[in-house]
Design brief:
The chain is of the alpha/beta class. The chain has one domain (4-185): Alpha-Beta Complex (2-enoyl-CoA Hydratase, Chain A, domain 1), CATH 3.90.226.10. The protein has 11 helices and 9 strands. It has a 6-stranded mixed beta sheet, with helices on both faces. A 3-stranded mixed beta sheet has the order 5-7-8. Helix 1 packs parallel to helix 3. The radius of gyration is 17 Å and the shape is globular. The protein starts with a strand and ends in a 7-residue tail after the last helix. 44% of the residues are buried. The model has no long low-confidence stretch (mean pLDDT 96). The structure holds coenzyme A. Coenzyme A binds at residues 22-23, 25, 61-66, 106, 108-109, 132-133, 136.
Amino acid sequence: MSEIVVRTEDGVVEIRLNRPDKKNAITQAMYAAMTEAVTAAQADATARVVLFSAEGDSFSAGNDIADFVAISSASGGEMGLDAPVFQFLKAMAELDKPAVAAVRGRAVGIGLTLLLHCDLVVVAQDALLSAPFVNLALTPEAASSLLLPHAIGHQRAFELFALGEPIDGVTAAAWGLANRAVGADQVEAVARDLAGKLARRAPGSIRASKRLMRDGERLWAIMQAEGAAFGAQMKSPEAMEAFMAFSQKRAPKF
Ligand code: COA
């Protein structure tokens, strides 16, 4: 079965991460499939809402770290804007239809920063959200350097980026990163219910409202600036040490 499963029902396009044995870590191939689904949803008049969900016990462990190593060694850390991850981020910046996320378990790295591009977020009370970019000797992405401090304040955002320790779902909702924190077994039902409600609202009004609330062009510009800093770090010896430490299941030595 594919690692990204897309199904559409009653105007809701569900994009489901389906790599549970790797905690839904996202590979370049998965970003490409998600880009295709988001772009198609944006273009299809019958698609009203995009819903991100995940198979298994975790929403996503973030970018696949083996992919980071492959990119670093194959191209000296260079990741052009045509790389699948950037194409996905661009598609999210351009999406003016509402996006909903259903988050259980771990949401790491882009597993968290993707939520900043969703309009309604449902988390499990015991979900664990983290953005450990500095632990990997990397820098924030997905316009999170702007959106996360904007959502929760500089000090909280800096702590999430720099210390990389997780917050639970209750805290995420209290800080404004999620609309609802519910029991883990309720997450998908609540998210589907909200997505269904959005799908029945006036679509032109929802899209116009979202466009007024978010400047997609600015977000894409920030994503590109972040990409330059991220790419520079990817090439650094400290990042290589962090990737090696992860694959060898040990703590990095910086
Ligand atoms: N990239 C590649 N593989 C990953 C991964 C990632 N981001 N996250 C988890 N995996 C793999 C593990 O290597 C492991 O593979 P294995 O069974 O072949 O050894 C499998 O998924 C299960 O992960 P494991 O670490 O055993 O599960 P856990 O429940 O103990 O911990 C996490 C879950 C998410 C806390 C932990 O896997 C983790 O910290 N992952 C890295 C997160 C990260 O830094 N992401 C990048 C952010 S920019």
